[in-house]
Every structure is written in C-alpha cells, then in structure tokens.
C-alpha cells in the first residue's frame, strides 16, 4: 500500500466512523476495520484479541490486546471524556488509562504492553509505557488521513526477516570468535602487532569467502568448502595462501597452466578491492580443531548469505576487538536506532518523493520522473566521520538500493528488461559513501560489510529484472579513511561541494571520562571559551561538522550523549556553534535509551540532533519524544519549542528568593556516620556519646526513610571526648583519612577531625529539604521539611528559610518541568543544580489570594502524605502506586501555581509541558533583561 493509498483508506475509515461509537456493539468492528483497511492486516481477527479475562477482586475483561506489537486497548463509547474518572464495578473512580494500568498489574510480566491506547471512537490517546508518566499522544479520528502514521505502531511487530538476520548475524559473530581464539593459539608471538593485524585480516578474508560461497559469488554453492576439504590439516595453510593469491590475481595474469595443475583453484574468480592484496599476512599452522571448525561449523552447518551486513559488520568488529572481547559484549547499533537518524535526515523525504512520482497518472511523465529520481539517488553523497564498522553507511546504502529497486519495479512493469554489457540498471553505488574511523581493523570491516550489502542488493535486483548481474570483480569501493576525525581535515576525505549529508554515532565519552588527549581534541576546536575543557567528546564532532557545512545546504545528524542538551554544557557548546556558524536544529529525538549490545545490553541515555546552516526558507522543526511527535517553529538547544536562550550558571538567585545550599559534607572516611546498630552499641558502651549523636540523612535516606545517625561533635568539650575512647578512635580515623587525601583542602581539614568537612546545618527551626539526585521516572521531585535537629548531608539540598508557599512552588509541575528541561542527568536520573536550575527559575508574582491558595494546596500535599506514615517518599511518588489523595492534592497545587503564572484554563501552557517551559523561558528572559537594566 503506497502512502497515497493509505491516506485515502484512512480518510474513508474516518468518514465511515464519524459520529458512530456504541461501546458494546461497535468496538470490535471499529478495530478490525482499522487494522484491515488502513494498516493492511490481512486477517485482523487473528491479529487482535478481544475481551481477554483479567482477575482483580472480580473478573474483568480487557477490551483489546495486540500481542505481536504489545498493545493494550481500553475502548469507551463516543462522547466519553478520556481524561475523566469513570466509576468501576467495585466503586473505584478510574480514568480509562488508570483502568488499563490496573489490568496490567494482574498480567504476567511477559504480557505487559509497551503501548496503551484509550479510545472513544473520535479520539485516540496513546501512552508509551516506557514513559508511563508522560503526556499521551493524541490523535483525532478527523485527522487520521494526515496522521495515520502516528498509529503505525499498532502493526509494526518488527520484520520477521530482520529478526532472522539479527539472529544469524550474532551467531556468525560467535563462529568468528571461535575461529579467532583457535588461530590465536597457533601464532608464535600472538601479542605482536603484526600477528594481531594478520589474525584480523585472516578472519575478514575467511568471512568473505564463507559468505561468497553461500551467496553464489564464487560460482557453485560450497565451492570454498570443497576446495579446503581437499587438504589435510598439514596442507591447509599452504592451500589457503595459494587461494588468497589467486583471488587477488586477474585471470589473464595467472599461471597459464594453473587449470591443468589445479582446476579447483583456477575456478575461483578474481575479487579485486584490495581484500586479498597483502601477501605479508601471517597465517599460522592449522590444527584438526581449526580444520573441523572451518569445514563443519563455519561452512557446512551455517548459511552466511542470511546475515545482515549492517549488524554483522559491528558484531564482527566487536568480536575481534580486544577491548570489547574483554568486556564480554558484542556491540552493535540496532537497525531501528539507525533509522531514527537517517529517516528524518533524508530517507522520509525520499520515500515521499517516490510516492508522489508513482501517483502521477501519465505514464510518460511518471517514467521520466522515475529516471530522474534514480539519478538523484545515485548523486547523493554521505559522510560518517565516526563510522566504526560502517553500520550507518551500510544501512543507508541498503535503504537507497531498496528504493532504487522499487524504481526498477515501476519502470519494468513486471517485464524482463534487457541491459547491454556496458550499462547497468543499478546506479546507486557504495562509492557514494565516505567514512572516517580511528581503528584500522574497523575500516576493513566497514568496507567488507558494504561489499556484502552490495552483493545482497544485487541479488534482489536480479529477482526484479530476471537478468543475471556480475558482482565480481569488485568494481566499486567505499572511501573509508583511517584517522582521528577531530584532527583529520574532513574536506581531504570528501569535498563539501559534492557532500549532501553528514551522520553518525560519535563515541559516547562524557566530559569526566575524556582522556587528556581527547580533552585537547575538543578544546583546540572551541578555543578559549568557558568550560571548554569540560565538554563531552561528541562536542568536537558537532564543531567539525558545522565548520564543514558553512556556506552549504549539507544537513547533519548525530547521536549524542544527552548531557550536551542539559545543564552547564549547553551554553558553551551551542552558544559557540550558533554564534560562529549560524546553525539551526532541524529535528531532534529527546532522551531515550540507546541499546547497543547483543549479549549484555548497554544502556546509554542519548539524544539525536539534526542540524544545518540556517537559511531564509522557513521550515517546520520536528521533535520526537517517546513516541510523541511535535512540529515547532524553533527547536532550541534544550530541545524545547522556544527561542535560543541559554540558562547559564548563576551564583545568586534571579528572583531574590531564599537561597538553597547543600547540606553538610563529612569527608570522614565513613567514621562519623553510624548505622542504627553502631549507634546503639556506642551508646551502650559510652552513654556520654548519646548527646553527640544526631539523626543523619542523605538523599536516599530522605527518599526511602532509611535510618542513619552521625556523631555531631560541634561544641564537644575536650573533657567529654577524653571520656569516650571509642569516639576518640573514630575521630583519629577521620584525621588519618583526611591526611591520606590527595586534595590539599581535605588534608588541611585533618586539623579539625571532630567536625564535618563543611557545616551548613541551621541551628534553629525547620528547613526545606530535597534530594540532589532523583529518579527520572518521578513526575515530582519530592521536597519536604526537616527539623534542624536532623543533620542533612551534602546529598540533600536545604533551604533554611522556607514556608508553605515556597514548598508549593517547588512541588509544582511548573517547577518540575523546568527541572526536566534544564537539570543535568545521571543516566536518566535528574541532578538538581542550584546554580543552573534553582537560581535561574523564574518565580511567579502572585496576588495575595493566589499565594494563599498555593499555601493551602501545599499543606494538602503534606496532609495527603501523612495519611500513609508507613510509606516512604519513594513509595508515594511512584506514579503507578501514588495514592489518589496525594495525586489529587498535587493536581490542585499544579492548577494553583499555573494560575499564579497566568497559565489559565484553555492556554497551551496549561496542558502541554513543552508550552509551559517555553512560557517560563520567556518569563526568564524578561527577568534577566530587567535585572540587567538596573
């Protein structure tokens, strides 16, 4: 089904179901028709399940589930408000989404949905359960013709062929690992550089030969296997050396008598491409184990033609990379994640253009346009300046060739099309692809992966045109250059005049993990700017790309550590890039988990940012956020629909509010901190110590009601200390711990070992406290009140002078939206920065009536918490189990705070977090301007 056909089907569906919607009688026909007519499911009754039983304290029924795509559906009748609670059979008041979540709790974990859809026939609410507290994506039936793609997740179960390719590719990597280990043992000096490089090259050549015999490139199936089988173990090494030499020799340059002496060897074709050109490669003696491994496991019992070159290239490199072998993980970037980069960068536009051409009714015009479009595909040039094993380049090549094959289908009309020997129906070539990679072995793997991709797509073209095409000798080559991308001149790799797109996945190295050399790579580009020595490594790729594309229409997209859009790095990176190069962000994926390992999943929190040089042509910008898609006029460096304003570190509060500080820091080697058992033992042994022991709380203690204590020896008399030998022993341990520190300031504090390193504890009253680090899964960062008697650690933020109004603002969704936009992250957890987040937060200026209302709703939050004295704040603020009284109190507080900001009912800021943050940024700009004008 083409895009135009699917749009028409969606239009017809929406027209038919307009104003229809009886929950009990029409739900099933509605969903069956949607899946069949709009999304092309041939037997929807086998795809979707209705009325599945779920046992609560009574038997209930789930309206619909789609097991293949992990979807749960809660259907309501036409006119039902999907945001309002509905009375259940047990008397509970639940929204449709809350009703669905209750069902989920009773399902086996294996059946938990990724997506929850609530629907009332006219509106679909889509919830991504990877982000269960996120705002739902809302799709109106009336807009389905234009927005049908937003429900595509209903049927995208993942291509089964792709799953098979992935399994085969990983299994192939394991075979390569076995061969690698077996050969490694045979080298005389396996740790030498020459031996290791030879071993890598040997594995690459063997993989190519194994693939070539299964793919029919060498001639008949099993040709490589049959040749090797003719040698015993002792003769196999020489047989392989002879084969590699023949594969690198043109037929006319071979021994004219080779066909007589060794017809099996002479039958092998000339490969070219440099793969077999190095005759200095060291090949060790074979063993029976290696011979059997190569002939049986690698050849007879495995089909290499099914591998995915995109995945296998990375798995192959990872298998033979000493660092990743030691870590025990085979690294590869999923094809799905690659498409998150290349689809919005260029592929979506190309597919749309193809669909539009196919819709042209006049055949002559359509044919001419198709041929022009094919030439366009063949003219596009791509650079991946951190290409690794070439997976981005390989998947892009495959995607362009699949599109070219669709063109050939349209041009051939199912007829056999003859091409002369001098011309080829295939115009897209791997020579359109350029890369830079620091690892020499990865360069070889990337080229090999592209050759395999070229072979596979040529087979697909043969099936379309029903004509044989010659793959060997290799006629094209990708231009992959070995070098440090931050020191190489990119124009020496490919001229910017011929380049169209820059893309890739530069190294995930955070600022604190960069080596001195890596820091130098980055700071040498940005020059003498603030924090230039504290930028993530990927910042260097952004700078080099921006420098490359100035004065051109080249578009770029990188996967990046998410910290470049958060906290203190934003201003130095993006301020520099925007000021020097006048770039703009074209599209972005907000933070999501980038899973890039086959065996042990590596969870890295990343963003994807597409950018180009700003031009006069206005174009909408797209943000993808956990399944939600939004179109905006501008995407700023925080990935928000707002102007390019930078929130920089500020030592004092912009709005003259009470200051927040960190609690007291012990730096004591753990000797002043006591567990409950240690506290009890100390008091029993030295009763005098009791008056010097105080409750002690850090961030985790505060959130989880954990009980800890500390020795608080402020004002302790020497005579008391003399009577407490166990306490003195701990104090001496503090002194020794500080003396052994490499930090000069810590050593100096060894002179006062009875005291915490820093003391910020207020001496009277109550203080507002909150965790410095809080889970990114919480909608609200919990703040609360402590007596000054409880010692707050430096992992707690404290405000000695506070009140209910301040607490209400801090607990509001407005403040938490600001945190989510500008706080730094520790993985997915928020790190609350006083100088970035709190000191820049634009407070409202409420009326007395509004302030009183906020104080009232703030107190209601505390009262709701008090109803559950046995529950920790971590329990209370788990969105799945948050008590209804507490949720209701927060909702009332959110409304009161929004009213104080002027975000009244009906305004975008009231219902959209991104719009709320945009308005807060405008207010921030006003307050900054006002402060500067004084």
Total domain count: 5
Approximate shape: globular
Task: Return the structural class.
Answer: alpha+beta
Q: Give the amount of beta strand, in percent.
A: 5-15%
Portion of residues within helices: 40-55%
Number of strands: 28
Number of H- or I-type helical stretches: 34
Characterise this structure.
By secondary structure, the chain is α+β, with helices and mostly antiparallel strands. The protein folds into five domains: 3-154; 160-307, no CATH class; 308-481, no CATH class; 647-663 and 763-934, no CATH class; 671-759, no CATH class. Helix content is 44%, strand content 14%. It has 34 helices and 28 strands. The strands form six sheets. It has a nine-stranded mixed beta sheet, with helices on both faces. A six-stranded mixed beta sheet has the order 1-2-3-6-7-8, sandwiched between helices.
Features:
934 residues, 5 domains, nine-stranded mixed β-sheet, six-stranded mixed β-sheet, 28 strands, 44% helix, globular
Short structural summary:
By secondary structure, the protein is an alpha+beta fold. It has five domains: 3-154; 160-307, no CATH class; 308-481, no CATH class; 647-663 and 763-934, no CATH class; 671-759, no CATH class. Helices cover 44% and strands 14% of the residues.
Write the SSE topology.
Layout: H1 3-17, H2 23-38, H3 44-47, E1 49-55, E2 59-66, E3 71-75, E4 86-87, E5 93-94, H4 96-105, E6 115-119, E7 123-128, E8 137-140, H5 144-147, H6 160-184, H7 193-215, H8 223-229, H9 233-247, H10 258-261, H11 263-266, H12 288-300, H13 309-320, H14 322-327, H15 335-358, H16 363-379, E9 382-384, H17 391-412, E10 433-437, H18 440-465, E11 479-482, E12 501-504, H19 516-526, H20 539-549, E13 555-561, H21 570-581, E14 583-595, E15 603-613, E16 621-625, E17 628-632, E18 661-662, E19 673-674, H22 676-685, E20 693-697, H23 699-704, E21 708-711, H24 718-722, H25 725-739, H26 744-748, E22 766-771, E23 773-774, E24 784-787, E25 791-792, E26 796-799, H27 804-810, H28 813-822, E27 824-826, E28 829-831, H29 834-838, H30 848-866, H31 873-876, H32 884-901, H33 908-911, H34 913-933
Parallel strand pairs: 3-6, 9-10, 9-12, 10-11, 12-13, 14-16, 20-25
Antiparallel strand pairs: 1-2, 2-3, 4-5, 6-7, 7-8, 13-15, 14-15, 16-17, 18-26, 19-21, 20-21, 22-24, 22-26, 23-28, 27-28
